[in-house]
Amino acid sequence: MTATPVSIGRRRPDVESAETGSGPLVDGFGRVHRDLRISLTDRCSLRCTYCMPEQGMEWLARSSILTLDEIERVARVAAASGITTLRLTGGEPLLRPDIVEVVARLSRIVGVDGERLHVAMTTNGIRLAALLPALVDAGLSRLNVSIDTIDRERFAALTRRDRLADVLEGIEAARASRLRPLKLNAVAMRGVNDDELVDLVAFAIAHDAQLRFIEQMPLDAGHTWDRASMVTREEILTALSARWELVPVPGRGGAPAERWTLAGTADGDGRPYTVGVIASVTAPFCGDCDRLRLTADGQLRNCLFSTSEYDLLPVLRGADPSDAAIDAVLRACIRGKLPGHAIDDPGFLQPSRGMNAIGG
Ligand code: SAM
Ligand code: SF4
User: Fold this and answer.
1) CB of 183 within 8 A of CB of 212?
2) What residues form DSSP beta bridges with 43?
3) In terms of DSSP H, where are the helices of 264-322?
4) Alpha carbons 145 and 106: distance in angstroms, whole number
């Protein structure tokens, strides 16, 4: 493994060390980890330009993809150490043939607080209309659907697939479901959808959903990200302020999105709708990060931007696949977590995996 050089933050000597092998997953900077993001596959039904190349993708070896038994095992060990939320992602999680069973098995896991884990999903919405009733019955508790544009031609150019109608059908199914809060994710991109930000929020409101804009991050498999041309948090807020008065929502906690209520809007309960911005680049929230990631091929990652991974495959498939051995890898991963992603450092290195293989 290689270590990423960083220059921000300081180790806190006053917190319980994750090296003890028991108790919560606390890193060297006092961050308690409660959220495990599980990538179920690196495959996808779309080819979003900011995530995957059009062609020439090197897929993970099928033999290395974790089975449901293996995923459940890791999730149980993580739950015993204080993880309370599992977010299923990818690639496209709905491409996994056993997705309903994945949700059913994971949502039966009970955490240290005696409550069942929350099982959430981030999806591009394709196949969602067909699968959502079974997913809800299986125990899915929260849903994020990604949609960057509601213009068919733009969608086809951005995702390299003419599938907007399928996504809209999925979002309509989500609106009709009881999963709330329903969130829609949109990556803001200059010259692509930056003239559509107000329309996207209006679309979300019409579907009883909260829009969350994401600053584009250097995680595309093609390594084409350009800091100078990305749409920033400030630009997003300026565009939305022309249409709504934005009132900050306090109490963000470890959530990646900063939120604002949209004055003058009201949902079925009379509460104003909110909009969120995930400003990972211009306003990083690393200091409150409580997330850990498991890739589809069994690598634990302590950051989206990490260049180090902690390999669970030899443990899960080796001679001693004990819970203690899995826990030891989890804790090594937590111990290795750096204070921040350091995108702005001159020495920043983009991870070799694209977002589809990391799990967003
Ligand atoms: N396929 C599913 C989807 O698109 O929702 C789940 C996986 S996708 C990697 C998860 C989220 O990451 C999506 O909302 C997507 O827009 C976001 N994403 C992917 N690449 C990104 C990038 N370079 N910068 C910011 N967000 C990105
Ligand atoms: Fe697929 Fe999601 Fe990546 Fe788009 S962002 S290519 S839908 S994994």
Assistant:
1) yes
2) none
3) 313-316
4) 20
Separation of CA 51 and ligand 2 centre (Å): 6
Pocket test for ligand 2, best of 39, 46, 164, 184 (most atoms within 8 A of CB): 46
Predicted local distance difference test score (pLDDT) of residue 114: 96
Task: Report which ligand 2 atom has the smallest distance to the Cα of 92.
Answer: 8
Cα separation, 268 vs 65, whole angstroms? 42
* 176 token code pair: 């009709």
CA max distance for the chain: 61
- Within a domain: 216: yes
Residue of 145, 269, 158, 151 lying closest to 211 (CA atoms): 145
* pTM as predicted: 0.93
| Mean pLDDT to the nearest integer, 126-149 | 98
Whether the CA torsion 301, 14, 34, 66 is positive or negative: it is positive
Burial of 32 (0-12, 13-18, 19+ CB in 10 A): middle
The CATH number that applies at residue 150 is 3.20.20.70
Q: What is the mean pLDDT of residues 316-339?
A: 94
* Domain around 283: 6-358
Q: How far is 165 from 151, CA to CA, in rounded Å?
A: 10
Distance 268 CA to ligand 2 centre (A): 31
Tell me how many domains the chain contains: 1
The ligand 1 atom nearest the CA atom of 356: 9
Q: 346 C-alpha vs ligand 2 centroid, how far in Å?
A: 28
Please name which ligand lies nearest the alpha carbon of 57: 2
Q: Which H or E run includes 122? A: strand 118-123
DSSP for residue 116:
B
Question: Domain for residue 82, yes or no?
Answer: yes
Is residue 1 situated within a structural domain? Answer: no
Tens digits of residue pLDDT in 166-188: 999 999 999 999 999 999 999 99
